[in-house]
């Protein structure tokens, strides 16, 4: 079978969009639901097929699809995946499927539109992960906003949902502006002819990677790209949309928002390799920013009384650790970062869905309304606890190898950042278990809690899959590490083996 | 014979997996399944003990190779971590002892836990713990030991909070886990430094590198592991967690804090003996911590009036002596002490409930005169030397307050700087407003604010622009047009107040300490 000619990635992007149209056309909610689930399942299988076709021994982009899109501007329709992005495809498809199944009964109005938006968002997200042309990427990047805007605004659970939706969109537009400026700067720079002829703009990522920026532009482009992705990641101080959005939107959407790690992916894919010498030069700033985010998020999480808000801040904290790993510029760092992103995609979205199950039953995830859940919902508590353990990074769960790699990478590169990461590991256990103590253990105080029903069969099966994944990746971390080994190696050498000014190289060397 | 070692931790792990999965999906529940659970757990740990004894026999006959590697667990660049086991020496002896003790405890628990609500949960955790502790003892590299270390700590958490509807039990469990987590951070730091400087995580390589490392590096690595050991074995300043850990059912107390887990710290120190004997500083620390803990436990133990507390302080006192022996370099003595203490303490804790029965109606002995005559010492002993209060005051409270301050900062300053302050103010009414808007009644339009809010509040850029415009306007209006007037003086005074407020805030101890800490980190 020829694997290179079949446009699998295009199919992956447009199949959910087609599904969105199909669900939108059927006013009947039952049928819309069935169609949405079938499309999501097919999408998941296709993304697994993409993973199967992917060759982990090759560090370059694969499954490339190349067409000219806007000839005047030299904008291409260029798709491809490598070891860094390949696992994000099945993860996105999987999280979307989980969200659709979790929305089964909790979405009560405009169901077809809800499922259509979810599917559309899935396709666009896959587009973000596969686009290799800057303009195409930017298009997908900005296209994620309308579905999320409506998903937060129309099906949110709190009165401020519309304000939250506006807030989210404005934050992201702000980041998008920086991204656009950076893209234009890169394109114009690459177009500037060395011999005076040919002024074709360049938007294709593989070509841009071959053309190093002049040193005076590197810093600006790096900071612009960092700013663009820092908003979405989110890094401090651009994180405030996250708690608002998770509190106002419905928990399923919050699971998508915390689960899809587009921002950190952007930093890995674009910020670091496109301005390599600036990345090396400013890696310590990035590391410090990550460490601050890490500790800051963890400390605030210690003070939260609402599960959804707590998860938002714990997500901020975990992303901080990922940034520390990226900034340490070694193999453990980048591999650990990708591992942690995948791990947290599973863990954060599953925890958020569990919060959703509680919200759906009780109408609140605030500690004062909970207490003693373990007694009435032992199965839910058991799953919750497993994901909490993965979030803390206890051995046997997928959080452990990820955190281990990140902490070791930080210790090797910048020891003080490693110590900060360790402090955050202690705080992580403190805030997670403290909340567990207040909400799940202790005596039952409220009559409403007494009458709760434990997980239904659909919910139980839904949670089994991520629980299994958490354990499998915890026991066999090499499954993930081997898929991105070559790509991470290529990524790292592209950054470190640039013709950098010699004193900067010496500076990095001395940090060993 | 070497390959047998894999099965020793694996058997109880499989048992725990069977019980856990069966219980979660409802296949094992209630009194009817008690026999199945009990048999599974007992058989598994019995098989482990037999295997461990067989391994020990083979080791004594010198049939073992010394190590056995199973597979590669994780590799990233030069970091390669195997699942490997030790099949000779002290580890094997200790594993045999622990396996036998755990078998006794498991058998004991069957009758003890009969008809308890959490019967299956208890055996799930106990089996998992057995597996973890055998992994800890037998692992060839630091990471395998850490895995066992951490899982054992987790099981300890789960068993302390066994009666999870009692708030005290769960609060204690959380505190114990978080305290231990500090030690675990030391362990991870040790692993990281070993990788950075020794480029291997095998205990044998770390020990062998002791002579090659510089003094500072060797001390740093040894120190990290020592902190982990002190935390796990409840030495000062971590001691108070042990007394809090006695909430669980008696057999679990026997397994964790009498016979097995509490000795893990001493085991770690003995494993690292060659490295630690090269680092006088760490030896001194061991002597200091061991001696103070022994004295501390002795004086507190004198005033305890319940069985479990007395046992707790007797245990930590004995462990203090073991650390002292290690610090003085009597490694052989420490290992014998460890084994003997494990057996004796296991018996004492298991018989504690029946002791209550045996000694009923006996009058309680008066406190020793040595203590009764010195009132301050008596009070100090009763209050357990305020160790817990001091750590609470010095460590936990500042962190909590910092969390509170940051949370305020995030909600009130960062959020306002970045986003929309408006909704926080009209929070209560906005649902009504929303519905009014849906009805088409634009009630908030006549307040004159609705058109303006977008410009005033939304987004960083517009807020900034607005502020700058306001500032320029103020400057123009007050300073340029009217000259320095009363208003400027007023403004100056306001600024002075603000600066003052900032000063007092920054000078609070927690911020000072934080500042010092950050400076130290940067310098490091």
- End-to-end separation of chain B: 48 Å
Could you state the oligomeric state of the chains shown? heterodimer
C-alpha-based Rg of chain A, rounded: 22 Å
| Order of strands across the main sheet of chain B | 1-2
- Poorly predicted residue ranges of chain A: 500-512
Task: Determine the structural class of chain A based on helices, strands and strand pairing.
Answer: mainly alpha
Strand content of chain A: under 5%
Number of strands of chain A: 2
Give the amount of beta strand of chain B, in percent. Answer: under 5%
Q: What is the share of helical residues of chain A? A: over 70%
List the helices and strands and how they pair.
The complex is a heterodimer of chains A (512) and B (524).
Chain A: H1 8-25, H2 29-53, E1 62-70, E2 75-81, H3 88-102, H4 111-130, H5 134-143, H6 145-155, H7 161-191, H8 205-210, H9 215-232, H10 241-248, H11 251-259, H12 262-274, H13 276-281, H14 283-301, H15 307-327, H16 331-362, H17 373-376, H18 378-392, H19 399-413, H20 415-439, H21 447-450, H22 457-475, H23 478-496, H24 502-509
Antiparallel strand pairs in A: 1-2
Helix pairs in contact in A: 1-2, 1-4, 2-3, 2-4, 3-4, 3-11, 3-16, 4-5, 4-6, 5-7, 6-7, 7-9, 7-10, 9-12, 10-11, 10-15, 11-16, 14-15, 14-20, 15-16, 15-19, 15-20, 16-18, 16-19, 16-22, 16-23, 18-20, 18-22, 19-20
Chain B: H1 4-24, H2 34-60, E1 67-76, E2 79-86, H3 90-112, H4 119-138, H5 142-160, H6 167-197, H7 203-208, H8 215-232, H9 240-244, H10 250-259, H11 264-271, H12 273-276, H13 280-301, H14 307-328, H15 331-358, H16 369-372, H17 375-382, H18 387-418, H19 422-425, H20 430-439, H21 450-457, H22 460-480, H23 486-506, H24 509-523
Antiparallel strand pairs in B: 1-2
Helix pairs in contact in B: 1-2, 1-4, 2-3, 2-4, 3-4, 3-10, 3-15, 4-5, 5-6, 6-8, 8-11, 8-13, 10-15, 13-14, 13-17, 14-15, 21-22
